[in-house]
Design a protein that fits this description.
Blueprint (H helix, E strand, L loop, with lengths): L5 E2 L3 E5 L5 H7 L4 H5 L9 H17 L2 E8 L5 E10 L4 E8 L8 H16 L4 E7 L3 H9 L3 E12 L2 E11 H4 L12
Parallel strand pairs: 5-6
Antiparallel strand pairs: 1-2, 2-3, 3-4, 4-5, 6-8, 7-8
Length: 190
């Protein structure tokens, strides 16, 4: 199920590895990922990251998930992660993703997820992919919309994070919406 490498114009995506722990720790030092992603610790120690990677590798082995390092082709620098958690019986999955702060607002995540989602729909025989974000995380909302995902609901005061309640915005994408040739057909505003 795992790709050797998924390549895009500027990036390649590969399975996460234990050797990625130091780069992940460096990308997460500013706390911005933890601020936008409840459940992500800050500081996130190398030992915690190594344990998470070990768990991720078990998911990959069991075919219940995919955990991809997003890397720049030009430098081999790991710039973020994209993951998929599969519920095989129902043929659906949930994605999560983040980029280091120096790599945001450059179209990298949309580029990476276009390749990953296309691969995931086919490799895992999925009918549906979902994603969610804190309502305050408008950057994730923009990525989901660019991918052609449809906002399906808002769970009000669903998460208690940073000493306050937050709304969670849910998005969904059906394989039939993904497009005839495996490429997204983004929803266009009216």
């Amino acid at each position: 199920m795992a790709p050797k490498h998924l390549k895009t114009k500027r990036l390649y995506l590969r399975d996460i590895a234990q050797s990625d722990a130091d780069q992940i720790e460096q990308l997460m030092t500013d706390g911005s990922v933890a601020h936008a992603a409840p459940g992500t610790p800050h500081p996130y120690t190398c030992d915690e990251i190594l344990q998470r990677i070990t768990d991720n590798l078990k998911d990959i082995e069991k075919k219940t998930g995919s955990h991809l390092a997003i890397c720049l082709q030009s430098t081999d620098q790991l710039i973020g992660l994209a993951n998929l958690t599969v519920t095989a019986h129902h043929r659906h999955a949930e994605i999560g993703f983040w980029l280091g702060s120096d790599y945001r607002n450059q179209g990298y995540m949309t580029e990476a997820l276009n390749a990953a989602i296309d691969h995931w729909f086919n490799a895992y025989n999925l009918n549906r992919i979902t994603a969610h974000h804190l309502a305050l995380n408008t950057a994730s909302s923009h990525v989901m919309q660019k991918l052609g995902m449809t906002q399906e609901g808002i769970f009000r005061n669903h998460i208690f994070h940073n000493n306050q309640y937050h709304d969670i915005v849910w998005y969904g994408l059906l394989k039939s919406e993904w497009g005839k040739h495996g490429r997204n057909q983004p929803n266009q505003p009216n």
